[in-house]
Amino acid sequence: MKTVPVWMAEMDEADMAFIKKFLLASGSLKEAAAQYGVSYPTVRLRLDRLIQKIQLTEQAEADPYVSLVKRLAVDDKLDFDTAKLLIEAYRETKKGG
Description:
The protein has helices at residues 6-9, 13-24, 29-36, 40-59, 64-74, 80-96.
């Protein structure tokens, strides 16, 4: 592979470490949970968030502001309700301008 896919380049070290452990566990959430010493639902939540990050990147949102707000929500740096309000307000201002 000559270039790293955009979705992969946007992952932080912890995300990449999780992906590696998950692959080495043959995709078994149960085994990954045992390796991390956490519950199955905790690992499932982590995987779901990684999936959301990849989907956001793959969507290649035309508006970088909306992409940023969505990414902050997925990374738990902003709650989803606030993210939704920000995006709605932003889109309303764009309609008026």
